[in-house]
Amino acid sequence: MDALHAITLGDVLREHRRSRPAHLAVVDGEVRRTFFELDERVNRLAHALAAEGVGPGERVLWLGQNSARIVELLLAAAKLGAMCCPANWRQTADEIAFVIDDLAPRVIVWQEDEVGDAVRAARSLASAPATWLRHDTDDTDLDGYEAFLATGKSDDLEEPVDPSTPLLLIYTAAFGGRPNAAMLSHRACIEQGIVYGHFTGASGDDVYLNSGPMFHLGTLMHLLATFVFGGTNVFVPRVDGETLCRVIEAERCTGAFLVGPIFEQILAADPDGRYDLSSLRTVPAGRDWNARTGRDPSPWAAAPGGYGQTEAVGMMTFSCLALGAIGTHGRTSPLLQVRVVDEDGSDVADGEPGEIVTRGPTVMNGYWNRPEENAHRARGGWHHTNDLGRREADGSITFVGPKTRMIKSAAENIYPVEVEQCIAAHDAVVECAILGVPDERWVQSVKAIVVLREGATITPDELVEHCRSRIASYKKPRTIEFVDALPRNGWAVDYDALDAEFGGGNYPGGSVPSA
Amino acid sequence: MDALHAITLGDVLREHRRSRPAHLAVVDGEVRRTFFELDERVNRLAHALAAEGVGPGERVLWLGQNSARIVELLLAAAKLGAMCCPANWRQTADEIAFVIDDLAPRVIVWQEDEVGDAVRAARSLASAPATWLRHDTDDTDLDGYEAFLATGKSDDLEEPVDPSTPLLLIYTAAFGGRPNAAMLSHRACIEQGIVYGHFTGASGDDVYLNSGPMFHLGTLMHLLATFVFGGTNVFVPRVDGETLCRVIEAERCTGAFLVGPIFEQILAADPDGRYDLSSLRTVPAGRDWNARTGRDPSPWAAAPGGYGQTEAVGMMTFSCLALGAIGTHGRTSPLLQVRVVDEDGSDVADGEPGEIVTRGPTVMNGYWNRPEENAHRARGGWHHTNDLGRREADGSITFVGPKTRMIKSAAENIYPVEVEQCIAAHDAVVECAILGVPDERWVQSVKAIVVLREGATITPDELVEHCRSRIASYKKPRTIEFVDALPRNGWAVDYDALDAEFGGGNYPGGSVPSA
Hints:
Two copies of one chain form a homodimer. Chain A is an alpha/beta fold. In chain A, helix 1 (9-19) packs antiparallel against helix 2. Chain A is globular and about 70 Å long. At the A-B interface, helix 1, helix 7, strand 17 and strand 18 of A face helix 1, helix 7, strand 17 and strand 18 of B.
């Protein structure tokens, strides 16, 4: 290992302890800890975990809601060369049991409040042995997190850890009917923290409210940026409008994980403007919101988003790098190379769809315990995203859709998004989802599931005619079904549910079974 | 080599060619090249260099003034896994000959204009064989740079290159009476480009005027940041006020390497404001300047500088990370750890001086061809800077001075800067330099070289009394000499010249002979 050039996430904490010892690192309810205090606790936790056999390559699992303790567990794992997985606490007992048996973690930290029933059921279903620590208890038993932590010494471990080894495990990508944990290295986490922090304007003065789920990169990217630049991370166990208002006012939060429904929950919880939200700097979000908060001056806020994957610690392209460009998903992060390739790995022509592949320091070290899939996805030294995209003539990138949902009609490839956009452009249509239905002769045929505007009337034939004049004939739907609403999986349309209901399948890229 | 996570400086160029093919990459006089065109030329040059035997680990040397061709040479070396050294063109023939024999480069690119005499003399003095290419000629002979480049194919080489290998060689640190070339890796250059670019607000819209010497990190850090973020680098062979005005106006430069005398040269060259300099965003620099240019809104501009070394691609701490702090040199870059240690490598207490050591991805891979020095400087897995500093109570850093100039009086360490500040605080004093003079009994004794304010009169005894009441008695000067001015080496006081003139020596950290 090359110690001279190494920096691990544990090293970032060590330097913060030296450089900003009295600066607030984490706030969680009544808990307020400086970088000095956080490092002391991380050391204690790391010693205690080491005594339970957590060493290089071992896993620790978090089964609970958002908490500053996730950061402690992640950083203790970092100092030990171990891996930390904050799992989705909204999962069923079966799903949690799968994660436990898949990871076989040495230590599991769990929560009784809200998720205790599912966790206890999962514990009885799972067969992998582990040390279980409950975090939301004042018990002084050693199966309580605080009591366990207190058994460790506060001096630094100083174990050498290679920054290229995996640290953060995030379950994603349910291909083959089961989720897979992307292994993200120290280096990937730190460098994405710096680059994402650059575009979002991160600084050591930031106070970031982790109001999104910490089992998802959307929030974690910003947590990492705030941490790497020495700012303050604030935690709430889950989203609740009134709590968010109270915390934003009390901690003078400068940023938060905000998506449509959270804006609404905050405004609904405080219609009279009793709370002072003026410290927040956000994207514009309606007159009521804008009147009470500041504007985010960062490049990111001018064009949030881009294209990303959990498998590359989130953002791979940034929309703010391509204002006014042809492509809809920005340009490549300065840390990465991105190519668009055919099945043989050769570049396709600009403007043509192909699979997005990438390489660079933020790319995952593979999925935990999936060696065959990993070899396939990393073939030729490029991470294959399983997503389709286009390189436009001006070098910008357009994300076309998951490769798994590409439709094959005879020799032709059909990209659902193109047909969906065409149909959605009709005045009578609110939205639309395109499926591929197995066809003995043509591999698949195109089926459109359409939601009409209230009071609108249009026949399937009329909609097909609309398509015929706008896109190549082989792309037009052969059949159309009208529905009142599309099923959703959080915000995304649940295509698996649609396939199950309307007979979709036979996708050449491999469909995702709905169970 | 881990291709999946690699990014070299050549890869950055490859991605820019894909992501912003038509964006201007370099401007140099009449020459204006897009990233597409730059990559085509770099490929040709790389093929031509490969045919001359330039492969992994080989060196190419630039002996000329600033030019876009330095970027081509650097990037061609990057694609070959070779190293590129832009040498100081102000050196004597002897000094240049030393560099040639020290590096033993396969290929030397040289310039006739202004530096031809010294280069030709050095060529006859040096014994290492090389292929010599003149760059400022229209000759179609193959010993002309352009004709040589044209022999190469424009297709990409696709040689695998490990980003941890050295790429950029910069001569520095003339300990032992000779300069030494710090070897900076691809990763070090890219990551410093990102972090320095973060604090200086770099973006793909930048047009950076390389108005400082490209053999020095001051300019190169900004060149790297501009390149990594996909902006435009503009070159002038050397600083000339009128030329700078013309180029700033013509290219709408947004930034430039500006230090005191350059501001003055620009204003002196254009006293009537004929040129439009309004595109420039700079730190404030006097009423005349401010009226004609914009203000730089970046964190860096709020507190430029910090502590840095060529051996870590420049900045290691940033002043803008410690506004209002105790320390005078900021806080640590997010890419590094910094410690302040004693001779045994143990941390000294906060507020106590010790040697600054660091580790992280921007640290050099050692000096070219100095294995013993490298082992010593990298002992314990930390780069020893040979500089003294303090970690203040608030975690900020103060640079105290070069370790080589620390003075020893019996068992006591004396830091010249502390005594200098004390004496300079006296009303009668303009400035002051502190030397250590060999002393048989006490190792060294303190000597002050003092410049008095015009018309001021003060005796040595009175100045010693001034010190006695302000700093520990053993730090006060034993002898004082008054001079009209301190000798300077560029901007810095030339302590070697003072030692030579006033008998300084016997420094325990090793003095720097004046050659």
